[in-house]
Amino acid sequence: MSSKDARGDKGASAGKRVGGNKKMSGAKLSTGSKGPGGGKKAAGRPHRGGKTKSQASSRQRTGRPSHRGASFDASALEGAEFIEVSNVALPLDAGLESPASEVNRPTPVPLSTETNHPAPATPAASPAPAEGSHAESLSRAAIASALGVAPEDVASFSLVKRSVDARKKSNVHFNATYAVHLAQGVAYDALSPARGVNVRAYDPPAPLAIPDLRSLATSSDGRIVVAGTGPAGLFCALFLAEAGLRPLVVERGAAVDERTAAIESFNTGGPLDAAANVQFGEGGAGTFSDGKLTTGTKSPHIRHVLEAFVQAGAPDEILWQAKPHIGTDKLPAVVKSVRERIISAGGEVRFLTRLVDIELSGGAVRSVVLEDSRTGARETVEASRVIVACGHSARDIFELARDRGFALERKPFSMGVRIEHPQTLINRAQYGAAAKHTALGAADYKMAVRVPARANGTLPDAASENATRGVYTFCMCPGGEVVAAASEEGGVVVNGMSRFARDGENSNSALLADVRPDDLPGNDVMEGVRLQREVERAAFELACRNGGVPYAAPAQTVGDFLSSATSSSGQAEGGQPGGTVAAASKARRRTVAPGSHRRVGAAESHSRLFVRPSYPRGVVWCDLRECLPEFICDALAQGLPLLDAKLHGFADPSAVLTGPETRSSSPIRMVRGQNFQARLASDLPDSDEEPATRVYPCGEGAGYAGGIMSAAVDGLRVAEAIAAEFSSR
Fold first, then answer.
1. What is the pLDDT of the chain when averaged over all its residues?
2. Could you tell me which of 461, 665, 637 has the C-alpha nearest to residue 558?
3. Residue-wise DSSP of 178-200
4. How far apart, in Å, are the Cα atoms of 399 and each of 273, 395, 479, 675, 700?
5. Mean pLDDT throughout 695-710?
6. pLDDT by residue (tens digit) across 636-666?
7. Does the predicted model carry a pTM greater than 0.85?
8. For a 10 Å CB count at each end of the chain, is N or C smaller?
9. What gap in Å lies between CA 85 and CA 177, rounded to an integer?
10. How many C-beta atoms surround the C-beta of residue 135 within 10 A?
């Protein structure tokens, strides 16, 4: 993201002290039954004096093994009742019982307010496994070993974060962070943390401060209009509604239930609904994806977004998973719940309503024109502010912004295919002999390499800054499937999704190559959109020309793609040329080897792994070079062997490539100032004056995010900026 993350307001109650009432808000501590303070009510602050008798015996039992780290400075823990212990090695069996439970679900209240929701004094983390269980014993023993104390010296603990450490396939384990309360009388200076274990005072996450602005929103103010119900629009609107600003939220697509029905109809051969599809509708494109909640950005709002999702019905475990996800089967109910909270807080939500015009007066927004997506009827609404939180596929919004004089610029984006493997291959490659351990679940991956950048058949000067091109995996969906993500007639687009259980037979991810602004001809800011459309339409025509039904997707095995061969005689999978979707679906239920017509040497080693393509409208075996740009195909062909060196089997000849993936991000950015307001094209480029358009580009479509979490965070930042404007009145 191009702007720095706003700092969260911790409020007066979010001090350094970590102790207080042991009764956790929405969480449960695991407690022991042995030793001082081992019961459920371990009372009193940690002893600050010399070692007690209990401590002395504890040290005799545990000693200082050779793996202990350097001398430990306990002075930084002074006054803390809970300590945060990170890098705790945890055996896999400790994950057989989930620490998440209903007691950890936050009460459905506003995100928080400045006045009645102070920062929690006790760990806002997940409860530990059930007391006395095997998982609880393993967790307690691991924490004790990490701290150099006896298990009974750990009075209570709560899981803050857990990830899989598979760097050594012979020792796959969990890496955990805990909030820990020691038994009464155990002094912090008696701790002897193991090498690599970090110990500090536990600092609970601060709540999001939402001011009450109802008295400052006068009747003369027009509506605050939020265009789009993706993560950016939803979280921006939720903040504004709970601040008392009564936003009007408009969504060009359908509500999630109607949207789900339209997508299911399209997947089984029905017509494309331009108003209700994988790209458009309540929740945005992320609703029908894996529901990943990871991001490379750093912001205190990440925790706020996760908590809001849990309050809306998402699984509690997203609060402690290192790589949280919700799953496409659970996301519809979650986004519907967020919408209901917006309405209950005073906001208004209209579906099947497009933003078709933004009317300015004196360089600032005066009103917007809204259009019914079904009937075409239009309405003009006075607006004091407009949040443009459209998705990356709202191409008409880009054209509107350009025509109304807003500053737009090209930005890098990516293009490529979806690559599918059997999930068992990924599990073995990542976890080795531990792959079948039930605590691990489906393995994922994330990889990137750089290759020589060829454009238009030439290789740039090696000294050029553009001498290499990035090839990488994106939006990996363990145990998932490839989805039909078209939003315009006559174009094929693919994406990926996983359900919460991630229990499908295949994994898939986007396999993409960079598209830089200088890869595109001319100076038209819409050139990236033009390239996307060109590729999507070429894919549609290629599949139909080779025997597929409308919206079938062109596909090719990795082996044939690398040898520039075609995977079959050009027929749609499972039927004769022009075969029905039903025939293709029947074929997908069979075990097929999409490479049986390979035009390669007989001496070549063939994989035993069969991949049944999961794209719902059926695939047609084609040469993907006939629909994708040459420089993209060259980059993917160079990158596949390099990625295989990172993850053995990634470039297996029988892995399936289905294309095209063109919508991974927006090719355009609406330029905004530090105050989050959109700049006009007429603004002087070197001007230090902040724009005053009262139009706020927001989220992924506007070019300021790259996934569910970063988009939601950007929505909160924009809402905070608007709230600050009202507060300064």
1. 83
2. 637
3. EEEEEPTT--GGG--PBTT-EEE
4. 21, 7, 38, 23, 16
5. 95
6. 999 999 999 999 999 999 999 999 999 999 9
7. no
8. C
9. 6
10. 21
